[in-house]
């Protein structure tokens, strides 16, 4: 296993459960995740529950309304009564910890180990010219060296045109959802530990940076509780947003499988990147268990996961483009469409409830 992000550690637990001896190679000096909140959608929560990871089943106590608002606070779409699934919101480090808590004696972790070269033949894979394995799972993220080695012609990460900020406020917000303004968005979600996770996006060139002061300048006069949340936040993380170009490369090459962002990094607009990595891990273990021939099992894994991930990359990118619109006329048309769509969805949900 190369990479001990959420994808790599989930795959390590999943492979351990079906009898593999797993070595996790991670270039960082220690295991763990930085970051703020993360959404865990039902499909990923089901995989984690199957793997025995405990603690994701307590759905966030969403006490107030959620949906889509304008910076003034006016609702465009109220989602609370649409009858749609909502994710569990959890701190990223807590999610990582509850997965690694399932590591047993079959999992060995080597931190401070950077994979630079990978070669393979019919009998196995060779890492950095010295470590041999039957199977290599590349969970080494957006800038995967293994994906680049396998597919040197593939263009690799492309910049979305916007950056994202994330932070944790030490207060409980009574509502959630997203607020869309011109070329910038702000999202609020309650974590299961009682704190409030917020995130925000803004159009800007890659590499420009940004901090909490920039967030306060941009969103500090938006509707309540945004100013209060920012006032209760110590620091903000900032990441330029990239995804991988379509078509995605195959997730299987001989005895090597790509997993998570290494295979399908997507913009975070649907909050699905890590969830898709978790689902990849479940699918990989399933095919390796069901199909004795390893190369065939990886081909089946690719056939199952690549189409699903492609759809998510595409839809996440489209949502980002809609959300980051700058032209007021286009924004007006978008908001009207969403308001009408929200009404139709609300009506359909009410009908479903009556049946
Ligand atoms: C702002 C933002 C918000 C997001 N919100 C959500 C959300 O709410 N829900 C959700 O599901 N997803 C979300 N995502 C996406 C999610 O963060 C990623 O999809 C997920 O973390 C990818 O996990 P991964 O394990 O595939 O890769 P990574 O987390 O990138 O892990 C890769 C690991 O590999 C290691 N590594 C890299 N190269 C090497 C090497 N050569 N040798 C050894 N080790 C190496 C790295 O150090 C790292 O630990 C968000 C992303 C962003 C940017």
Care to describe what's here?
It is globular and about 60 Å long. The strands form 5 sheets. A 7-stranded mixed beta sheet has the order 4-3-12-13-14-11-15, sandwiched between helices. It has a 3-stranded antiparallel beta sheet with strand order 7-8-9, with no helix packed on it. Strands 10-17-16 form a 3-stranded mixed beta sheet. A hairpin with a 5-residue loop joins strand 13 and strand 14. The chain has 10 helices and 17 strands. Helix 1 (6-17) runs parallel beside helix 3, helix 1 runs parallel beside helix 8 (273-290) and helix 2 packs across helix 8 (273-290). The termini are far apart. The chain has a domain at 6-59 and 88-158 and 245-323: FAD/NAD(P)-binding domain. With 355 residues, the protein is α+β, with helices and mostly antiparallel strands. It binds flavin-adenine dinucleotide. Flavin-adenine dinucleotide binds at residues 2-8, 25-28, 38-39, 114-115, 139-142, 145, 164, 166, 239, 260-262, 268, 271-275, 277.
Structure in a nutshell:
The protein has 355 residues and is an alpha+beta fold. It has a domain at 6-59 and 88-158 and 245-323: FAD/NAD(P)-binding domain, CATH 3.50.50.60. It contains 10 helices and 17 strands.
């Amino acid at each position: 296993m190369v990479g001990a992000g959420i994808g790599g550690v989930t795959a390590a637990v999943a492979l351990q459960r079906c009898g593999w001896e797993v070595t996790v190679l991670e270039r960082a000096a220690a295991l763990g995740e930085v970051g703020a909140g993360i959404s865990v959608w039902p499909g990923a929560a089901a995989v984690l529950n199957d793997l025995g990871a405990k603690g994701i089943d307590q759905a966030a106590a969403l006490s107030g309304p959620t949906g889509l608002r304008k910076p003034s606070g006016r609702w465009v779409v109220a989602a609370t009564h649409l009858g749609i699934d909502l994710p569990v919101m959890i701190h990223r480090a807590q999610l990582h910890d509850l997965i690694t808590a399932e590591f047993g004696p079959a999992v060995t972790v080597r931190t401070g180990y950077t994979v630079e070269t990978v070669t393979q033949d019919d009998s196995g894979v060779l890492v950095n010219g010295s470590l041999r394995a039957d199977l290599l799972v590349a969970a080494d993220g957006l800038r995967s060296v293994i994906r680049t080695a396998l597919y040197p012609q593939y263009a690799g990460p492309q910049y979305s045109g916007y950056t994202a900020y994330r932070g944790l406020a030490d207060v409980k917000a009574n509502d959630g959802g997203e607020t869309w303004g011109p070329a910038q968005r702000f999202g609020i979600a309650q974590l299961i530990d009682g704190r409030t996770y917020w995130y925000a996006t803004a159009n800007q060139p890659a590499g420009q940076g940004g901090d909490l002061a920039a967030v306060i300048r941009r969103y500090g006069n938006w509707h309540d509780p945004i100013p209060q949340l920012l006032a209760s936040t110590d620091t903000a993380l900032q990441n330029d947003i990239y995804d991988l170009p379509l078509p995605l490369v195959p997730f299987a090459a001989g005895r090597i499988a790509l997993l998570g962002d290494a295979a399908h990094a997507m913009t975070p607009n649907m909050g699905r990147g890590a969830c898709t990595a978790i689902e990849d891990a479940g699918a990989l273990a399933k095919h390796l268990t069901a199909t004795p021939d390893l190369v065939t099992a990886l081909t089946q894994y690719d056939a199952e996961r690549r189409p699903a991930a492609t759809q998510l990359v595409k839809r996440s990118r489209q949502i980002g483009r809609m959300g980051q619109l700058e032209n007021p006329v286009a924004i007006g048309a978008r908001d009207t469409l969403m308001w009408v769509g929200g009404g139709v969805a609300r009506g359909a949900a009410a009908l479903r409830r009556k049946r």
